Amino acid sequence: RYPRSIVEVIESPPQAALGLLQQQEVEFYIGPELPNLTDFQFESILDDPLMACIPTEIYGGEKKLLLSDLLRYPLILLSRKTAVRGLVDRLTAAEGIEFKPQYEVESAQTAVALVCSGLGVCVVPGIAISRNDERMRVVPIDHRDAHRSVGIITARGYVHHSFSEQLMNLIRTNLRELAN
User: Fold this and answer.
1) For residue 153, what is the enclosing H or E element?
2) What is the pLDDT of residues 35-63, one digit of tens each?
3) What is the mean pLDDT of residues 115-143?
4) Which CATH number applies to 47-146: 3.40.190.170, 3.40.50.720, 1.10.10.10, 3.40.190.10?
C-alpha cells in the first residue's frame, strides 16, 4: 500500500517504550494507558477487558469468574514488569487476595500456550486472545475495574511525519474494528 515506506516495529514493555518516546527513537507506542503520563499524550482507542483462559478439560461452565475464584487453579500470570500484571496486582490487593502463580511469563501468547497445554489458568487482556482454540475456554473476570484502556501514546508536543500519521490512522481503524 505504501511501497516507499519503511517501518521498524519495536516490541517493548510500556516503561521501556516511554523511554524510547522521550529519546525520540520511536514516534508512537501502542499500548495501555499508564499512570502519571505527564510528558506524554494518550489517545484511547478501545476498552480491553481482562479475561481468564481455562483449559477445556477443567472448565466447569462458568460464565464469569471473580478474582477469588482463580485461587483454586494453578495460575499463569504475566511478569511483574507488564502493565497487565500491575493491574491484576492492584485489583487483588484491593480485595485482600494474593495470587501465587505457578508460572510467570513475559507474553500473553506464552501464557495462552501454557493454558492450551493444560498447565493452568491465565489472566490476560482480551485483545491478546484468539477465541477459536478448542483447547481452552475464555471467561470474563467479574470485577468493575478488570479492564484497561488501549491506545496510542506519543510524546507531548512532538510533530509526527505524515507517514506516521497515516500509520496511526490505520492502527486506529483496525483496533476499533477489532473491538467490535
Assistant:
1) strand 147-155
2) 888 899 999 999 999 999 999 999 999 99
3) 94
4) 3.40.190.10
